[in-house]
């Protein structure tokens, strides 16, 4: 059994180097901006943010930051730049989002839904307040799997503490210790 799980952990490490296997369909983020927190969402390939700039312009530094940080996992629609806006505003948004992209602790992923292209099958993963779920058979047994572990690695700095936990078994840490 352990050797099976060690295999999954090695697979998760490889998968974490291949974020293009992951297609993010939905995500909800709390973004700690300069002054306030904002709620940013992606649904059906369209971004929304509750900040004032987004309300006025249909684009903002928060959305631009997430587009940059999550790029390999986004659909073409979700990568589209927002509507054309006043040049000087755009420049300042770009500068801000560049800075934010290096400050990943500003971003807290609260929920997501993603498809994962595995070696054999595709899987659907979700994260919400009660934790991770994956539709693969390993997850059913271990409450974690290579897909969840890979996503945990990729998104680590942006995940709340509860979503960084190694799963009900607490077994990954244990085994990683044994492996290294
Ligand atoms: Zn915003
Ligand atoms: Zn899985």
UniProtKB/TrEMBL annotation:
Tree of life domain: Bacteria
A GO term for molecular function: zinc ion binding
Record keywords: Metal-binding, Zinc, Zinc-finger
Domain SWIM-type: 38-71, 125-156
Stored InterPro entries: Znf_SWIM
UniProt protein name: Zinc finger SWIM domain protein
Lineage start: Bacteria, Bacillati, Chloroflexota, Chloroflexia, Chloroflexales
